[in-house]
Amino acid sequence: MLFKRSVMTAISETEASADRAGNSRRVALIVAIAFFMQLLDSTIISTSLPQMGESFGVPAVAMSIGITVYMLTMAVFVPLSGWLADRFGARNIFLVAIALFTLASLACGFSQNLTGFVIARAVQGLGSALMTPVGRILVLRNASKSELLNATALITWPALFAPVVGPVLGGFITTYLSWHWNFFINIPLGMIGLALVARFIPGDREADPKPLDWPGFFLTSLGLACLLYGLERIAHPEDGALPTVGLIAAGIVVGWLAVRHLHRAPHPLLDLSSFKVQTFAISTLAAGTIFRVAINATPFLLPLLFQVGFGLSPVDAGMMILAYFLGNLGMKTVTTPMLRRFGFRSVMVVNGIIASASIMACAAISPQTPQALVVALMLIAGLSRSMQFTALNTLAFADIAAGQRSSAATLSSMLQQVAMLFGVAVAAAILNLSQIARGRPALDLVDFRAAFLVIGVIGLVTSFRFLMLPRTAGAEVSGHVAGN
Fold first, then answer.
1. 455: pLDDT strictly greater than 90
2. Cα 443 to Cα 428: distance, rounded to the nearest angstrom
3. What is the rounded distance in angstroms from the CA atom of residue 468 to the CA atom of residue 45?
4. CA distance linking residue 93 with residue 98, whole number of Å
């Protein structure tokens, strides 16, 4: 009788564990759908700006305000997302974020003039600001440490997939339908996301939410907005260097004031104690942010290399980028076994070196390089980028305590926004400096070679910084046993 009871208990525990694992995967997949909608929208719009300008009766360059307003609204409200999730429940805020984003997409598609479009983009930016960190909070709260790697892999694929497929899909829609449909495609995705969140994600909220830290919100939002806008302007040197330098300097100063306030406030908007956790600090603030510069610069440089440097048509360039995208997806089935076998430290050092070498190798290719060799290089670059991206995102939360999750997810989102824009800004600055040094009026292949080499070296040097991690870093998440 006792044996039978023990067997039944073991079976029930196994079933409960399987249910928890299934629920964590389901939550991660639902969050991934929302992330895909958000990231696709961010990349798809750039292809339709000229047509939108023509429709609104304004120059195409004036349409860039739609991107700027979206980015600045995100910067202002991202710091608030963790507090809102704790105060009103992460599930409720995630539902609000998807609803705002979906309704704003509808408004963007029906916009009749630039003013209406800009207002709709601001609301879209608000929805996006809440969506990313709160989505991560939901995944962290519903996944145990042993399930975190698979859950993170699921919510990472939109960040790898959307930037590659977005411009191609946007070009096709704008050419064969109209620019309005670049926004209307968000409607079914948003409706599906809302239904799935309402049906499958459990509600939760903090039992004793903190009061809102208004000075912390003001300083953090202002500092982040100035810094991101300044970094975004680096890619547009024709606007003048002085405002760009002033914005970046203001962002750094206000950011320093924000950090000082957050350390002293009795109920800070963001709990900075996460940075005392070594795995979080290295994978987000230190080596992780710097390596993400290389990760984010490459998708920006490759389409320009193939179109401007090689002289390929957008369609042919898109086919080359497709190999890069396939590499990103292809690594998904390999990442978990590799981390389990070798551990985070070894994988991030060795794979970081391979990823950096593949970036530098892009400097060696030319229009005369055999196409098969270029495709093989794109595959390797995509494979190594995907593994590093997933490893960084998973390790960041491997040792984060339950009480730190909201702030850690918000801080991670903020730093990833900085790294994304900084990667594009550094790549654009290298291209411009190389062109100026040569005294030529247009970009040439040699400028791209300089950019790929510098970006690759940044990644290579940063790869060795992961040696600071202990061999057992993230072992509870990866399942790696030291000495294997």
1. yes
2. 11
3. 40
4. 9
CATH number belonging to domain 18-208: 1.20.1250.20
Q: Where are the domains of the chain?
A: 18-208, 213-268, 273-484
**273-484 matches 18-208 in CATH topology:** yes
The answer to whether 454 and 425 have CB atoms below 8 angstroms apart is no
Residue 260 CA: distances (Å) to CA of 2, 80, 216: 60, 18, 10
Eight-state DSSP code of residue 180: T
Write the CA distances from 104 to 134, 163, 183, 223, 362, integer angstroms.
Answer: 19, 21, 9, 26, 39
Tokens 């024709």 belong to: 238
Per-position DSSP letters for 207-270, written without gaps between them: SSPPPP-HHHHHHHHHHHHHHHHHHHHHT-GGG-HHHHHHHHHHHHHHHHHHHHHHHH-SS-SS
Range with top average pLDDT, 90-99, 132-141, 155-164: 90-99
Query: What gap in Å lies between CA 150 and CA 332, rounded to an integer?
Result: 9
Q: Which residues of 216-230 are buried (b: 16+ CB within 10 A; e: fewer)?
A: bbbbbbbbbbbbbbb
Res 484 pLDDT > 50: yes
What distance lies between CA 2 and its chain's CA centroid? 52
The amino acid that residue 375 corresponds to is: V
Higher-pLDDT residue of 25 and 262 is: 262
- Exposure string (b/e) for 391-400, b if CB count within 10 Å is 16 or more? bbbbbbbbbb
pLDDT at 241 over 60: yes
* DSSP secondary structure, 386-407, as one string: HHHHHHHHHHTTTT--GGGHHH
CATH hierarchy code of domain 273-484: 1.20.1250.20
DSSP string, 404-430: GHHHHHHHHHHHHHHHHHHHHHHHHHH
Tell me how crowded residue 477 is: count the other CB atoms within 10 A of its CB: 25
Q: pTM higher than 0.90 for the full model?
A: no
In sequence order, which ranges of 114-144 are alpha helices (DSSP H)?
A: 114-142
Contact 49, 60 (CB under 8 A): yes
Query: What does the block give as tokens for 20?
Result: 């928890």
Judge residue 261's burial from the number of C-beta atoms within 10 Å of its C-beta, 0-12 exposed, 13-18 middle, 19 or more buried.
Answer: middle
